[in-house]
Amino acid sequence: MIPADLSGIQRIIRRNKRRDLIFAIFGFVALLIGVLTFLALFLQMAFAGWERLTPDFFTSFPSRRAGQAGILSAWVGSVLVMLVTAVSAVPLGVAAGVYLEEYATRSFVTDLIEINVTNLAGVPSIVYGLLALGVFVYAFGFGQSILSAGLTLGLLILPVVIVATREAIRSIPQHIREGAYALGATRWQVTRDHIVPYSMPGILTGVIIGMSRAIGETAPVITIGALTFIAFLPESPIGPEFPWVNFEWLKSGFTVMPIQMFNWTSRPEEAFQQNAAAAGFVLVLMTLAMNAISIWIRYHLRKDIKW
């Protein structure tokens, strides 16, 4: 005969197991809905725009004739804007996260900074566009250029990179720091040789999330004056003479993939809708490629980490 207290414990265990099973089923169904929804939209774009995915589509400028229109200026503009975004946001965001987590002392000022950084991560993107219009376009005189767009999107993803960096650093066991300090390492040596390398997989996750958000943003770049129709390319970043680097492309006008898609979807002709579907398919592939590269780097970094 089972004692009363033991039978009560068994009932509690069975009830908790049922709850765990129900929650697991609910989570699986929610995940399945999200994945299937994305897959359905992705396949719909692929089927609708498959006929337009030809080499000419990638090497042609936009045109008033749907059959001759391409995404050359759009995908080149997206790549260059993302380059400026990464260069401006990633080093600054990682450095800020490292400072706040490893160097800054706990005080009212640091608490205020942390609250503001967290809140900035949820600010609507149009607000960043209006800020950039007044600061980068007019105050700094950068104009409606690739530089302005890249810095705008850099500001947009900066809070995400900072928060992700701090969370990645917090996940590192404290004994890593204590062991390094015990061997006589300075704070900078601990940060450089242990903290940053060990937290890099988590940092890369935050960076790729921010970049994936930035590549699909439309409101900020429209606000600062991105063109909806452009039939030229910026100057090449590679110059013909030493030091073989050209920065004139930063001042060039531009367009990006989401704006090109918006331009085509606003037209009533079916052929332009097909172009928009093809461009959307390419944009999703670009985002998936960034995620794949991040996952590959993260995997190899984690292989080398030994706690």
Please name the defining characteristics of this protein:
307 residues, mainly alpha, MetI-like fold, globular, transmembrane helix
The separation of the N and C termini measures 49 Å
Q: Identify the CATH architecture of the largest domain.
A: Orthogonal Bundle
Number of domains: 2
Can you summarize the main beta sheet? none
Quick one: overall form?
A: globular
Q: What is the N-to-C order of secondary-structure elements (H for helix, E for strand)? A: HHHHHHHHHHH
Using only C-alpha atoms, the radius of gyration works out to 25 Å
CATH structural class of the largest domain: Mainly Alpha
Task: State the low-pLDDT regions, or none.
Answer: none
Keywords: Cell membrane, Membrane, Transmembrane, Transmembrane helix, Transport
Membrane topology: Multi-pass membrane protein
Family: Belongs to the binding-protein-dependent transport system permease family. CysTW subfamily.
GO molecular function: phosphate transmembrane transporter activity
